[in-house]
């Protein structure tokens, strides 16, 4: 399926395969233009892939093309005007926006779909190529882009300020074509908001950008309640210009992706009872091979069979017919399922089955015809297809205390034969100040020749307090079947009173590290490997947090001290010091008695 | 130690006396309790200087401190005075300077005057050229007409328009458009043409500023009567030509004189005046004017027009909007370009449902679904339709809505054939019902779009506030220019007035210097605009007025002014008290003690 990785092919502009695929796209484009009155073309497809551990990956992909001339004239058809206007207004030539939640468990699920190109770090991630004459203009346009997108997607993107913006040098390269543009006029800016909770209010505007708006086609499955209940989910929007290498005709492409990993058993349970509850005893499958197994004790066996599911079970609804814009000649499949061969798949009756390469079963949707897929219970369980990722990455904090800390990233190359080159990018907040001299990359197992230098290139831009964050980019080479441990120490800054967020004791989120593996030709089997990116989880950094009643305490303390000092000085200066027997004293007791006496006397009278 | 040694020690001696004294006091008070009446005077504070009763005893046990030297007293007073001087002359100003809110000076009086319309007497001198090739005594006729017009003007002195007639230069071809000559704009050109058949009538050309006036050719006998009749007719024609604009502008200027009064006492007076003025003149169409004015969008130099095709299904999938706009709308937009510029964007939105609150009912007679009149205002589904625009210019929306086949044809009540409605200050909506199975169902070609775009053009003119009469587009656009300049003047000055009142009403907001600069700039441009108006250069006046309005609004909506600094009084008290309380107590007490001493001394010296 070329449609799932066209972006990655863009990395190799001169490879014959990409030329062929582009030629193919151009020809199809021409056919489409000749065949119908559409100026814009639209494609959507859904890939379902069972993952190990009773999970299901659902990848939604929506893509539309339109001539860039009408985009520039603001004559929008399938391209959403709301987004198009923002891009034009801010002179953004290529845009990548990611919303992500949860963690992709690569140990269990394997490589990320789409080579990880569609996934972002936890929270919101945005990078764009902005056309501008100089740095200041680019910065201003980037700010207005963030503000506008923040309004469009109901996300706090406007909080991406200069402290959260970096300019990656090695990690990203444009995926679009800019034949008529001076490359020095394009500025790459990258911003992250790791704390942003992605939720339904971000999905609704996302769906509104689609021509079918979730009313028909595969987008009818997208429901906020289900999407955000997933174990991992990521939404992405990519806009880029693509030019035909033959006639120089340019198109603007918008690609929207949603990847979600559903926990099948939880989704099914949700269907039966909205309140989560433990499974009944008779529903449990016990492992009777254990020595302690008895009638009273049950050691639950998780994957004893493949759970039966259907789209309507998992998503709460079935697909309501095709989106009319995605129906075209020659027919392209809309829904594909990459289930193991021995797993039975039952689509709704009367659905056309579209044979597809690499073991996928694909289906074509019909207009106004409800579509569903059902997979029956299967025992013994099948082994889902799993693709070994190119790299495993983990990042964590080390150290203790409120003053210093450390970061440790473990990168593991599982390949037995091929070493890989990766670019490791960290975007750290300014209040986390790394000591570059402590940056250390250790290779395990240690190399025999003693040359343990794995960092081949390093780009570092230090932080400025309250102005910008640290940007650290390192190119590493990881030999086959080995582990590289990157560590560095950092110092925690003390923030100003007003700089703490309302829930200061929760900690501060540190954005995911971005690990990019540039496209390369694999040594062992001479195959081209497209660009891949992997993101670590975000970290929670706890800073020294003051007691927030502090200012008033400070006022009271200082005032008391000042008043004491002042009082003593002024008393020393203006009081008269006399001997004890010279004190003119007030006899309070006598006075009171006198008063009482007076009262008594008046009473007696 | 021996007690005898103790006696030598003065300290021990004092201690002894003190003990004695204590005993005395307790005994005395016991006595007091027993013998109430007789002993009560004894119960005086021990050691009081002016104690009379047992003074002797006290004198015996207590020592008066030695009298202070005048030197120490003076030093003490100086110390106290210095503290107070530092507190008052250094502390207080410092405190004030660090806590005060910066307020840049604003020309308040001038702002108020502008908002009350005192500084600019809006006038619109209109130059009318008259061409009378076949009339022998044209000069005379002009004089008569001018006289009649001036009379009318004198009668209603407040009229902003001032018509001035001039005979067209001889030898100029009459077909030529009147040109701008040395900053002078000719509002219209009257051509007096003899017409033997139809008598007096006028004919407005739709694409130029020429108005033909036909009059019956004079017979030699009745030359004077014809002249008189012609003069009367010309005056009437001019009156008709500009009456609507005049009323509109008057309507615009009226609130300027009566509005700012809402806060001052002059209000009732000026409102009364306005009412008097109204009473003088019959105005049957005021309601119509205010209705028309309420639709008009705020003036801006640039507008963004959004043409949207909303369809309830996925069909039609496309439309020929680009060619349709260039064919039907671009001419109008280029004619409007001296007043405002326009940018255009278009979009197609599929599966667009109307708001759920809008439920059309099926009408059997009309065989169509009919929207209720009150539904029209909520027809726009703003929750779901992406109509917001990012540009800074005001956005006008024009929506072509294609209803769902199950709800087609959809009509609106009491509509003309166009099946469209205008949403004041927002845009226009046209409902297009497509026939089942028509070829247009898939693609809207531009002949189908023509009626819709024509409607949009009318909507656009109405939204911009162009008067519906006379038929000539240039005259209408000229009149729109004048109307817009009056509008920006009024809006800028009322904004200045509001700012002035706001600043007066809220003493705790800060006024940055940019605001003061904007206000000054605005006032300068206002007076420039006023001057240009008086000279009859309306386009220039509009430009100046626009700048004035922008600056005034920039000042009014200054972001730093919006967030006003507010500290509750309890908060301030809590912050200041811990320091000021303990510090001020010894200072104040010191002053009181010194005063007491001074008074006592004063009394003593007087007693001597």
From TrEMBL, chain A:
UniProt protein name: Subunit of the glycosylphosphatidylinositol transamidase complex-like protein
Entry keyword Transmembrane helix: yes
Gene Ontology biological process terms from the UniProt entry: attachment of GPI anchor to protein
Membrane-spanning ranges: 552-574
Domain of life: Eukaryota
Matches recorded under InterPro entries: PIG-T
Lineage of producing organism: Eukaryota, Fungi, Dikarya, Ascomycota, Pezizomycotina
PANTHER family: GPI TRANSAMIDASE COMPONENT PIG-T (PTHR12959:SF11), GPI TRANSAMIDASE COMPONENT PIG-T-RELATED (PTHR12959)
Organism this protein belongs to: Orbilia ellipsospora
Record keywords: Membrane, Transmembrane, Transmembrane helix
One cellular component (GO) term of this entry: GPI-anchor transamidase complex
Keyword hit for Methyltransferase: no
From TrEMBL, chain B:
Name the UniProt record assigns to this protein: GPI transamidase component
Organism per entry: Orbilia ellipsospora
Xref: InterPro entries: PtdIno-glycan_biosynth_class_S (IPR019540)
Listed Pfam families: PIG-S (PF10510)
Pathway assignment: Glycolipid biosynthesis; glycosylphosphatidylinositol-anchor biosynthesis
Family: Belongs to the PIGS family.
Transmembrane segments: 78-97, 573-592
Gene (UniProt): GPI17
Compositional bias per record (Polar residues), positions renumbered to this chain: 260-271
Ranges where the record places region Disordered: 260-285
């Amino acid at each position: 399926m070329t449609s799932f990785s066209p972006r990655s092919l863009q990395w190799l502009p001169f490879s014959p395969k990409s030329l062929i695929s582009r030629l193919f796209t151009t020809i199809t484009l021409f056919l489409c233009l000749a065949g119908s009155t559409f100026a814009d073309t639209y494609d959507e497809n859904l890939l379902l892939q069972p993952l190990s551990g009773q999970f299901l990956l659902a990848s939604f992909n929506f893509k539309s093309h339109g001539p860039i001339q009408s985009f520039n004239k603001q004559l929008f058809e399938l391209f959403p005007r709301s987004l198009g206007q923002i891009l034009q207004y801010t002179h953004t030539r290529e845009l990548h926006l990611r919303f992500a939640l949860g963690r992709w468990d690569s140990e269990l699920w394997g490589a990320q779909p789409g080579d990880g190109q569609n996934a972002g770090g936890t929270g919101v991630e945005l990078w764009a190529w902005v056309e501008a004459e100089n740095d200041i203009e680019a910065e201003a346009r980037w700010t207005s882009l963030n503000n506008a997108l923040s309004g469009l997607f109901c996300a706090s993107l406007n909080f991406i300020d200069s402290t959260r913006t970096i300019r990656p040098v090695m990690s990203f390269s444009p995926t679009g074509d800019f034949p008529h543009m001076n490359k020095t006029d394009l500025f790459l800016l990258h911003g992250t908001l790791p704390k942003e909770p992605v939720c339904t209010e971000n999905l609704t505007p996302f769906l509104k950008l689609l021509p079918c708006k979730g009313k028909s086609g595969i987008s009818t499955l997208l429901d906020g309640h289900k999407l955000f209940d997933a174990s991992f989910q990521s939404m992405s929007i990519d806009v880029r210009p693509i030019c035909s290498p033959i006639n120089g005709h340019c198109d603007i492409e918008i690609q929207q992706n949603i990847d979600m990993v559903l926990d099948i058993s939880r989704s099914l349970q949700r269907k039966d009872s909205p309140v989560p509850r433990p499974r009944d005893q008779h529903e449990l499958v016990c492992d009777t091979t254990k020595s302690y197994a008895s009638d009273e004790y049950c050691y639950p066996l998780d994957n004893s069979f493949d759970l039966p599911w259907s789209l309507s079970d998992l998503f709460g609804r079935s697909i309501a017919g095709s989106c009319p814009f995605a129906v075209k000649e020659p027919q392209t499949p809309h829904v594909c399922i990459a289930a193991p061969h021995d797993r039975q798949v039952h689509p709704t009756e009367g659905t056309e089955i579209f044979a597809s390469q690499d073991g996928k079963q694909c289906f074509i949707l019909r207009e106004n015809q409800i579509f569903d897929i059902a997979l029956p219970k299967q025992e013994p369980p099948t082994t889902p297809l799993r693709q070994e990722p190119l790299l495993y990455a983990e990042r964590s904090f080390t150290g203790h205390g409120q003053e210093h800390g450390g970061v440790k990233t473990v990168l593991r190359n599982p390949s037995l034969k091929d070493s890989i080159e990766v670019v490791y990018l960290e975007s750290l907040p300014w209040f986390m100040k790394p000591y570059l001299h402590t940056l250390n990359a250790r290779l395990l197992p240690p190399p025999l020749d003693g040359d343990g230098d794995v960092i081949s290139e390093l780009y570092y831009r230090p932080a400025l307090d309250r102005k910008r964050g640290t940007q650290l980019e390192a190119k590493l080479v990881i030999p086959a079947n080995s582990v590289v441990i990157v560590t560095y120490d950092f110092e925690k800054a003390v923030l100003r009173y007003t700089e703490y967020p309302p829930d200061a004791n929760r900690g501060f989120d540190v954005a995911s590290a971005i690990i990019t593996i540039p496209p390369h030709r694999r040594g062992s089997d001479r195959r081209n490997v497209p660009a891949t990116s992997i993101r670590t989880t975000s970290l929670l950094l706890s800073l020294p947090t003051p007691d927030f009643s502090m200012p008033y305490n400070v006022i009271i303390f200082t005032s008391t001290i000042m008043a004491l000092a002042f009082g003593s000085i002024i008393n020393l200066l203006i009081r008269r010091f006399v001997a004890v027997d010279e004190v003119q004293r007030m006899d309070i007791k006598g006075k009171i008695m006198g008063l009482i006496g007076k009262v008594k006397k008046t009473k007696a009278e | 130690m021996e007690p005898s040694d103790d006696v030598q020690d003065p300290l021990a001696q004092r201690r002894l006396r003190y003990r004695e004294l204590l005993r005395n006091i307790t005994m005395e008070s016991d006595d007091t309790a027993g013998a109430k009446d007789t002993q009560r005077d004894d119960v005086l504070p021990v050691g009081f200087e002016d104690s009379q009763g047992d003074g002797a005893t006290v004198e015996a046990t207590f020592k008066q401190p030695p009298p202070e030297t005048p030197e120490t007293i003076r030093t003490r007073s100086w110390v106290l005075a210095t503290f107070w001087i530092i507190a008052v002359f250094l502390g207080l100003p410092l405190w004030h300077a660090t806590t005060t809110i910066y307020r840049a000076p604003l020309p308040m009086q001038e702002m108020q005057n502008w908002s009350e319309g005192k500084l600019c007497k809006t006038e619109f001198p209109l130059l009318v050229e008259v061409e009378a090739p076949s009339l022998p005594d044209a000069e005379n006729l002009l004089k008569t007409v001018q006289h009649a017009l001036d009379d009318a003007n004198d009668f209603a002195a407040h009229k902003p328009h001032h018509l001035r007639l001039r005979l067209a230069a001889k030898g100029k071809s009459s077909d030529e458009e009147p040109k701008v000559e040395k900053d002078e704009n000719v509002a219209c050109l009257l051509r007096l043409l003899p017409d033997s058949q139809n008598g007096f009538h006028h004919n407005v050309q739709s694409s130029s500023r020429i108005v033909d006036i036909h009059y019956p050719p004079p017979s030699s006998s009745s030359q004077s009567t014809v002249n008189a009749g012609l003069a009367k007719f010309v005056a009437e024609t001019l009156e008709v030509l500009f009456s609507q604009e005049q009323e509109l502008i008057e309507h615009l200027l009226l609130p300027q004189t009566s509005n700012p009064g809402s806060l001052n006492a002059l209000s009732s007076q000026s409102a009364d005046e306005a009412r008097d003025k109204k009473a003088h003149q019959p105005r049957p169409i005021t309601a119509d004017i205010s209705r028309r004015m309420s639709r008009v969008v705020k003036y801006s130099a640039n507008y963004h027009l959004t043409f949207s095709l909303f369809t309830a299904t996925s069909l039609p999938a496309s439309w020929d909007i680009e060619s349709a706009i260039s064919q039907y709308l671009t001419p109008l937009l280029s004619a409007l370009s001296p007043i405002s510029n326009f940018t255009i964007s278009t979009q197609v939105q599929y599966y667009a449902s109307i708001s759920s609150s809008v439920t059309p009912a099926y009408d059997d007679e009309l065989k169509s679904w009919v929207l209720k009149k009150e539904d029209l205002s909520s027809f726009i589904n703003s929750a779901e339709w992406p109509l917001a625009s990012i540009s800074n210019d005001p956005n006008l929306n024009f929506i072509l809505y294609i209803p769902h086949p199950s709800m087609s044809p959809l009509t609106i009540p009491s509509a003309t054939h166009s099946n469209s409605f205008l949403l004041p200050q927002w845009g226009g909506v046209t409902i297009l019902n497509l026939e089942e199975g028509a070829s247009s169902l898939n693609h809207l070609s531009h002949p189908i779009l023509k009626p819709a775009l024509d409607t949009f053009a009318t909507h656009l003119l109405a939204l911009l506030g162009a008067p519906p009469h006379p038929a000539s587009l240039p005259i209408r656009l000229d009149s729109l220019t004048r109307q817009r300049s009056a509008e920006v003047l009024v809006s800028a000055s009322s904004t200045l007035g509001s700012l002035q009142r706001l600043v007066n009403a809220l003493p705790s907001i800060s006024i940055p210097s940019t605001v003061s600069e904007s206000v000054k700039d605005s006032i300068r441009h206002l007076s420039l605009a006023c001057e240009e108006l008086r000279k009859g250069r309306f386009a220039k006046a509009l430009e100046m007025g626009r700048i004035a309005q922008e600056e005034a609004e920039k000042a009014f909506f200054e972001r730093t002014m919006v967030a006003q600094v507010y500290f509750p009084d309890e908060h301030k008290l809590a912050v200041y008290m811990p320091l000021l309380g303990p510090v001020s107590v010894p200072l104040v007490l010191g002053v009181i003690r010194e005063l007491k001493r001074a008074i006592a001394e004063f009394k003593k010296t007087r007693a001597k």
